[in-house]
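Input record (one chain):
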Amino acid sequence: MKLSKKLKKKNAEFAFNSEKLFLAASQSKEQVYSFLNSRREGLYPAEAASRLKEFGTNEIVVENKNKWFILLIKAFINPFIGILMFLALISIVLDVILAAPDEREWVTVIIITTMVTLSGLLRFYQEWKANKASEALKKMVNNKVSVFRKGSDSIIDINIVDLVPGDVIFLSAGDMIPADVRIVSVKDLFVSQSALTGESDAVEKTPYTLGEQPTKTGSVIELNNIAFMGSNVISGSARAIVVSTGSSTYMGTIAKNIVGKRAQTSFDKGINNVSLLLIRFMIVMVPFVFFINGFTKGDWFEAFLFALSVAVGLTPEMLPMIVTSNLAKGAVKMSKHKTIVKNLNSIQNFGAMNILCTDKTGTLTQDKIVLERYLDVDGKDSERVLRHAYFNSFFQTGLKNLMDKAILAHCNELNFGNLGEQYKKVDEIPFDFNRRRMSVVVEDRQGKKQIITKGAIEEILSVCMFAEKDGIPVQVSDEIRKELLEISTNLNKQGMRVLGVAQKSWVNKSNSFAVEDESEMVLIGYLAFLDPPKASASTAIKALHEHGVEVKVLSGDSELINRNVCRQVGLSVENILLGHQIEEMSNEELEKAAVKTNVFAKLTPLQKSKVIEALQAQNNTVGFLGDGINDAPALRQADIGISVDTAVDIAKESADIILLMKDLMVLEKGVIEGRKIFGNITKYIKMTASSNFGNMFSVLGASAFLPFLPMLPIHILTQNLLYDISQVTIPFDSVDKEYLQKPRKWDASDLKRFMICIGPISSIFDILTYLVMWYVFKCTLPEDQSLFQSGWFIEGLLSQTLIVHMIRTRKIPFIQSRASWPVMLTTFAIMAIGIAIPFTALGASIKLTPLPWSYFPWLVGILLGYCFLTQFVKNLYLNKFHKWL
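The corresponding structure, as predicted from the sequence alone:
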């Protein structure tokens, strides 16, 4: 009864309270503060700290997230471990329960249990370590929210997780809504709720009380004055008060449906296919082995045990651990290169990426935009143009971009700081990415109102009827328009970004200004900004190109600016595609053009996404590096979204990888690490698949022609346990430099081909070992089987372990390419242990016998022959298929 009450209480804590939202929506703008025990100026810091203890951190808690015992249970849930446990259960029944007291045998049960425990615990440890590493890495990426706090002179930025109900926050373009909030005041606030509703169109949010503007259906999601956690601000600004946080939000109720639902990568599918393929081999082979041994030896019980042990030998129980260990190790190592992996599975796509699309500003350039020139329409320096630009940047409440910051910084150097006190702001028309301009309405002390607009020069000219030439407004004719654009073009050719500045004076309207008011304006001048190329950009592009990654620039800037910057950093600019040209193309035309084009200019956010989609249609793995709200659609569309720690919230939320430094050199190191991880996982898969495929032929051949079992079930289990231990260090192996030169994609057809070509090689030398033991050491009778089994036990283990070194590289192992020290130590230690076992009491207990010293020259010869033939077949394989790992 008490447990039931506790569960109800816990569920209540995390239940979504729609009634509370409706009540908050029904309060007036003044009453909502007292409803939530807050005030317009915000909470006191002490109040916020108290509520944080009461309500918990502002995070969506997914049930059982990161609980160690859940990870432990899950570590033992996979088909291979299931098969092993089934075999252990059968062994308990046959070898212990049904056996006579003096014939009870626990060795098989102990070895299988050891294998299961080793595999499960290693996987649990790697999963737990990966989880901890992932959480620690994510904490390095901070999403902030602007909060009003009582007693503070200005808005302060705090971490989103520290937000509490009653906090008063400020929202602007590019912000992610950090909780379920009641809108108190707005300026043209448009919010994207696609994460919650799937609707791509932005929704306007207003401060009107419920009842003044009723919802259409009564659904909580349609409340016009409530904004929900997980949605993001497209344009405008707002003051809002937090109603619910964390798991009590609307998103918290649907978190289980939206967390962890990523589509499988081709690599994930490939690993699953390997597992299913080996299980199918097992299902086909085990009955064969059982019936062949039953008919030829006459002991059906012994044949049954042998068939079960063969099933164990075919089970790659280390596969989940190897994959997890590689990904976790890679994520931690990439973090040392200032690359944070939000989604571990994205590492495979990082290594497979062959096209990187990137914005220009801050990636190819220094991200230190300076205001270089401020000119009137005659091309002369003009402080009046700068003054108007200052008002526009100073009074806007939206997301201040780099150019706004450059204007304000330059004006501060000229002591323009007191200008803001001589005017007051009346209204603003926020920036959006379609009209590419923004306006503020200001009023001086004499009551004169004027609209000041700045933005892309073409967009500014589209709303200007006049241009101020020699201080006199003249109507813009086609000839004057041509002159005006020519000044802008000349500045662009010098590598500068140009904005136009326009104004309209003596405006009669008093409030509620809208886009329609941006008309019949007067162009007064230009602002020219310079963002010099990074010194490292050219080197990074060259390095990426050498590693098979083609860099394409997707920019909203003009053709001339992009051409100038790209030339300076060594990018080909023979083909430039503009946004308006893309709109006129069919999907097929764009796909053909996108592959040949390196620079895309004057793109809208959706056009960026469209270009990436066109490249993906050509079977490319495409990465996109962006940091603005306009980059969010492209980040979601790309195979791997890459953002930076200084990006807007929605860009960081959309990305798989986050760079702590916006530099292509950092990215290049991440790409190489991704390929190393991919290579080490592929090594294990190909080793396991080919080795097991070869063993299948060896066991079938031996079973058909020998009068006794080639190895006892306990021998196969011991051999498999030792082989598994030798694989544990594969995640720490090195990768050949040549392998890192190209993007690596998963190819299922190559695995089947690899198995068929490489697997049977080991069978040839297994059969050669049979012949040596039969003809040289005369192991032809059942009483000689112990010696025969000892000989094959050692040869089988050593050849299986040597395959690690043969397959890990396309070069000659030990001579042209050496494994890392951890791999060398584990493999040679296991080989030494395998040779020693028949000479020990442990060997005697599992019916192995010491081998004569004359056996070992034969063993050396067989193993050398195995290595030489494998290398010969490897060269033939490479010449024909031009691929190894």
